[in-house]
Amino acid sequence: MNERNERIFGVACTFRKPADVFHAAEKVRDAGWTRWDVHTPFPIHGMDQAMGLPRSKVPRLTLLGGVTGFITGCLLTWYMNSYDYPLIVGGKPYWSAIFPFPVLYECTILFAAFGTFFGQFILNRLPHHHHPLFELPNFARVSDDTFMVVLEAHDPKFHVDDSRNFLQSLGGQEITVIRD
Amino acid sequence: MSDSSSNLSSKWTTILSFGVIALVAAWALAFLGLGQHDHRPALSVLLGCLFWTSLLIGMLMLTMITRVFDAGWAPVIRRNWEFMIGALPVVLLLGVVPLAFLPDFRHLLWEWTDLKHILPSGHEVGHDPILQAKEWFLNEKFFLVRISLYVVFFSVLTWAMRNWSFKQDTDRTASHTHTLHAFSAAGIPLGAVALTMLAFDCLMALSYHWFSTMYGVWFFALSIRLALAATVILTYRLSNGGWLDGILNQAHRHVLGCLMLAFTVFWAYISFSQYFLIYTANIPEETFWYNIREFNPVTGLKSDWWGVSMYLIFGFFLLPFLALLFYRSKIVPKRLLTIAVIIFIGGIVDLWFNAVPRQIVDKTAPEGFTVSPFLCGGLATDLLAIAGFGAIVIGLFLRSATKAETIPVHDPRILESINYHE
User: Fold this and answer.
1) Do B421 and A45 touch (CB under 8 A)?
2) Cβ contact (<8 Å) for B421 and A46?
3) By percentage, how much of chain B surpasses pLDDT 90?
4) CB spacing of A45 vs B279 below 8 angstroms
5) Taking CB atoms and an 8 Å cutoff, what residues of chain B touch A46?
6) How many Å lie between the alpha carbon of B421 and the closest alpha carbon of chain A?
7) Which domain, by its residues, includes B10?
8) Minimal CA–CA distance to A98: which of B276, B80, B45?
9) What value does the mean pLDDT take over residues B301-306?
């Protein structure tokens, strides 16, 4: 085996009940882990708090996109109707905030949508064509009847044997070391 | 029922009597105004009535919408709407109905009902070709029939929404939820027609030359905004020493905050679209309505109504909109309360903007009329009438709360509602 194949992605362990994985997540959170994840077949209410996850940063990018879009719309309509080719339409001013308002809010919505879509793309580090967890033989079962906690190797607290023991102490069942 | 909530309910007679006194005072002023041929105090009574009518219609619509969509979060909050909407027929009967049925008040407020009324052009209303073309709809008999129908319709609907819901408390029958589901499915479209016609008759017809197909939707948007703002204020009070203490949670506030944001945008969308279409088409028979809300016809300068319209854009839309974009504004109780109060006050200002400006015949003015001012003694009577109707609504709300469980304990979704989670 070469060095690349020996690199460890993390340690995974499975749970059979939502309550078990929920309490395990709380203990991982309280132990101060930052690079780890929980995989469940369905959304579990309160899991965000149990994992200590902060609010998503996507709304900020949405707002940024929206403001950019509004300004772009203003500049677009002002440049075309009032600066580059001044034209009187329907007796209205060359530029005011009223007649181009549909353009302004359409631009706001469009850019806000761009901010949201590309924002989540970047924050989720997409596109991501492969993930080491896919190598795990029983990973497909987390979309069926199994719950999984994965401690990742790039967490400063990570050490293979300690992590394995820690997961064991949480009541995890099948504990697997995942190679990168 | 806990001690604190029964204390709250026991205050209903005091609050109701305060409301009756304030309303009697407002009506007395309206009768005094009648003697001087001054429509403004009568308009105050109409405004007070329509403000609470709008708010209660919003709550009625929210009650039906949450029923139809089987909203899991709703039951603990909906019970308070059910307590509130019982006052809707009373508010109509104490305000719009006497104003419409007493000929003197009717002629004073709805000028088209007085065929001898002189228009700024110098002609009589009866000879106005615009009114003659609309006469099949705008005639006194049909007007009074419609006003009566609103009272009957809203009485039946509010009675139905309360009756089966309250019955469920005692007989524990889940099928009442299906009955109410069916009533709501029929009630939403019928309610939409009724509230649109009510807005046409009570508000738009105050200026019968003008017409806008957006008007009913505007009234609906305002109603829901007012209903949500009032719900936030009410539930804030009820969760601090009332029957929602320990029951109202962060997720309930969040959902109310999200709905407030949605309907703030919706209101702006409708109000702007109405303005935008009239601005673009630029037809005098439509633009005059906005012109009297912007310029003083004597001097041609911006009037105080222009300031009011700017307040609506920045204070009633932009400020709550920007504030509600932030997650924490929707979950921190005091912040949400502040925004709700801003919307509540803005709703009064929006009604002022829509109902108060009118052309008053003045032969000395160049255009033949002046416009009723914003800053005048009428504002005080408006607030008196709003407070009067409001105290009656709150008094009846607290009285309702003694008649049924304050939490719908046997609603099939009560556990889901209490444990509602974001």
Assistant:
1) yes
2) yes
3) 86
4) no
5) 421
6) 7
7) 3-418
8) B276
9) 93
Tens digits of per-residue pLDDT, B253-299?
Answer: 999 999 999 999 999 999 999 999 999 999 998 999 999 999 988 88
What is residue A11's three-state secondary structure? strand
Give the number of other Cβ atoms within 10 Å of residue A125's Cβ. 7
* Chain B touched by A91 (CB under 8 Å): yes
> Is B280–A90 a contact, with Cβ atoms under 8 angstroms apart?
yes
Three-class DSSP labels, B279-314: HHHCCHHHHHHHHCCCECCCCCCECHHHHHHHHHHH
Q: How far is the C-alpha of B320 from the C-alpha of B330, rounded, in Å?
A: 11
Name which of B265, B321, B422 to mutate to probe chain A: the one with the most chain A Cβ atoms within 10 A of its Cβ: B422
- Separation CA B389–CA B50 (nearest Å): 10
* Dihedral of alpha carbons A29, A32, A34, A39, sign: negative
Say what the ipTM of the complex is.
Answer: 0.84
CB burial readout A100-114, b (16+ within 10 A) else e:
bbebbbebbeebbeb
pLDDT at A5: 47
Closest CA–CA distance from residue B359 to any residue of chain A (Å): 26
- Give the Cβ contact number of residue B323 at 10 Å: 19
Q: Does A45 touch chain B (CB under 8 A)?
A: yes
pTM for this one?
0.92
Q: Which of A114-118, B8-12, B158-162, B250-254 has the lowest mean pLDDT?
A: B8-12
Count of the separate structural domains present in chain B: 1
Side-chain half-sphere CA neighbours of B317 within 13 A: 17
Chain A residues with CB inside 8 Å of B279's CB?
98-99
For B327, the closest of A46, A55, A90 (CB atoms) is A55
> What letter represents residue B302's amino acid?
K
Contacts of residues B3-7 at CB distance under 8 Å and 24 or more positions apart, as own/partner, are B4/B241, B4/B242, B4/B245, B5/B238, B5/B242, B5/B243, B5/B245, B5/B401, B5/B406, B6/B402
- Using an 8 Å Cβ cutoff, are B250 and B422 in contact? yes
Cβ contacts (< 8 Å) between A91 and chain B: which residues?
282
Q: Does A4 score more than 80 pLDDT? A: no
**How much is the pLDDT for A3?**
44
Q: Which residues of B fall below an 8 Å CB-CB distance to A?
A: 272, 275-276, 279-280, 282, 325, 327, 421
Q: What is the pLDDT of residues B204-247, one digit of tens each?
A: 999 999 999 999 999 999 999 999 999 999 999 999 989 999 99
CA B229 from centroid of its chain's CA atoms: 12
Contact between chains at A90 and B282 (C-beta distance less than 8 A) = yes
